[in-house]
Amino acid sequence: MALSKDQANAVWEGSVTDGGGRVTVASAAFPEQPITLKRRTEGGRGTTSPEELIAAAHASCYSMALAAALSRNETPPERLEVSAEVSLDRVEGGLKITSIELSVRGTVPGVDGDAFQELARTAEQSCPVSNALRGGVEITLQAELA
């Protein structure tokens, strides 16, 4: 039996190039968000993309995984600032998420740089979102203490 199940829903109207859609999350943690192909392939503000939502999921999941690893080490963090940058590229046959760059800057009393690096790598290996994406996407990690 699953520990938890979360749900998101999307509605799309119109062609892929001229149409648009919206995405909602069942928890109502954030309001309905508009989605468009233009935002996905050209960037911009005002709408989101699947890649941005994956980046948010990965950054938040990794921050929890690293906080857990540091807590098990009896050196809980004061603060972790995590960024995830998802790259979408054109490949033969369409679009593909090719890489995710995780970056973390931590304020962690009692941990030196080498220990932080090791715990950061361990956390990436245990992060459920990393593990869901691993294999088809290159994941890199940069970790540093504040």
- The mean pLDDT is 96
Distance between the termini: 40 Å
CATH top level label of the largest domain: Alpha Beta
Task: Describe the main β-sheet briefly.
Answer: 3 strands, antiparallel
As a whole number of angstroms, the C-alpha radius of gyration is 17 Å
Q: What is the N-to-C order of secondary-structure elements (H for helix, E for strand)? A: EEEHHEEHHE
What is the helical fraction, as a range of percent?
A: 25-40%
Fraction of residues in β-strands: 25-35%
The CATH homologous superfamily of the largest domain corresponds to K homology (KH) domain
Shape: elongated
* CATH third-level topology of the largest domain: GMP Synthetase, Chain A, domain 3
So, CATH architecture of the largest domain? 2-Layer Sandwich
State the strand order across the main sheet: 1-2-3
- Secondary structure class reads alpha+beta
Tell me how many strands there are: 6
Summarize the structure.
The protein is α+β, with helices and mostly antiparallel strands and 146 residues long.
Structure description:
With 146 residues, this protein is α+β, with helices and mostly antiparallel strands. It contains 4 helices and 6 strands; from the N terminus they run E-E-E-H-H-E-E-H-H-E. The protein has helices at residues 37-42, 50-72, 113-126, 128-133, and strands at 8-13, 20-25, 33-35, 79-91, 94-107, 138-145. A hairpin with a 7-residue loop joins strand 2 and strand 3.
